[in-house]
């Protein structure tokens, strides 16, 4: 996801605040609660990835902030199952308001499953972009490579990401 | 989408353009790291121009700002996630454009009129193109000017460069030009019946009279490091009267599709020349970003030079392929009768066509439908 903070302010002046409050409820998952809870990290390009407790698999999607900035998503070009991607590779795209925006791999990984429900209801990404459950707006499930685990260290946790988007929206 | 990706990989890597002369000494690629760049293409090939544009998007320095101006020969350009069968009258497209009316023969009136077959041969072909950016279907010809601005994503704003082009048009004396809520450039016209010569007179129905007319669309492509905003401005197109028919598919009443549908807008020419328009847009661009690189601030890209980049050649090959133009169509169903999924009453069909047909076209194709590698 590219950052498109400025059009967000024009189209939806209150969206940033909505994002901040929403990411508190959806994005923050203190993994001290139970051992099975995932670790969630964010990229500067507004993708998120959940790492499973055994650090072998993950789920990825685009952030609430990105979904709000992009506006109504009308089509999702899903990644190709089985594809092996390096961190930063364009693996799919979403279309909204005449924009085709690339979805990039947050870390090096292999795509094992894609969220086919988004083909029928691309708007799910606007409603629950950071939901990795059945019916959520997640985009793909992946196998995490060794390089992927290293890539993960460079990403932001939810508090850092919240700060990052607040700064981006303000400049 | 996986289907086309797999097919693309199966294509032979042979370069059909190996006979192209090597790049000239001052290749345009040397400017890609400059902070402000302006390029113009001398080609009117829509596949080549879009591939040059994509090359600039991928290879220009992440912090640079780039303006690219070009003109295409007659083409219908659909958005990245559109359905050509739904957006375009493909039969009309394949017939091409009729030749412009020739001046009356100077000799005697006894000269026989040219036979129909000759007229047929002189029709101008129309290219069908799927671009990489989002949005709806548009028509291009040599009476349009295409403009593209590539900038860092942090600076991206859906209206900033539409406003730039609108200012350029106003500076040329085109009144009533503004960017609307759909990010299109429109012209408010209050026609008292004394319309200026050259303003969309070609179109007998749409494009005359009072009202608001679209003169340039907008579409965007956002990558990890760059954002692209491009549009096509109707300057002096002689074919405006044909656009509506070309962009109306006879299959519309039979197809239920996923993906993106176009929004119809009445259109009109702004009535300025291509060079005058380009100069005005470049002036506004430099006003925003400062002096541009290259001799005289403009880098001209010729066809041979563009094709010297392997990436551009690959881009052209991909954009020209049926796998891209048709194969990248999102899932849709064509049905000759009302179905549960699409209960609309169907338009009347010709007698010779079969009734009771329902075709489902999935994307990605199921493996069984994949052509052999």
From TrEMBL, chain A:
Species whose genome carries this gene: Thermothielavioides terrestris (strain ATCC 38088 / NRRL 8126)
Database matches in CDD domains: GCS_H
Family listed: Belongs to the GcvH family.
One GO process term, biological-process aspect: protein lipoylation
GO-annotated cellular components: glycine cleavage complex; mitochondrion
Localization per Swiss-Prot or TrEMBL: Mitochondrion
Coiled coil: none
Cofactor binding notes: Binds 1 lipoyl cofactor covalently.
Protein name: Glycine cleavage system H protein
Stated role: The H protein shuttles the methylamine group of glycine from the P protein to the T protein.
TrEMBL record, chain B:
Compositionally biased intervals (Basic and acidic residues): 196-205, 338-348
Transmembrane segments: none
Pro residues: bias regions: 97-106
Pfam families: LplA-B_cat
CDD domains in the record: LplA
Record-level GO cellular component terms: mitochondrion
UniProt cross-references to SUPFAM superfamilies, sorted A to Z: Class II aaRS and biotin synthetases (SSF55681)
GO BP: protein lipoylation
Metabolic or biological pathway, per its Swiss-Prot or TrEMBL entry: Protein modification; protein lipoylation via exogenous pathway; protein N(6)-(lipoyl)lysine from lipoate: step 2/2
Function field: Catalyzes both the ATP-dependent activation of exogenously supplied lipoate to lipoyl-AMP and the transfer of the activated lipoyl onto the lipoyl domains of lipoate-dependent enzymes.
PANTHER family listed in its UniProt record: LIPOATE-PROTEIN LIGASE, LIPOYLTRANSFERASE 1, MITOCHONDRIAL
Name of protein: Putative lipoate-protein ligase A
Taxonomic placement: Eukaryota, Fungi, Dikarya, Ascomycota, Pezizomycotina
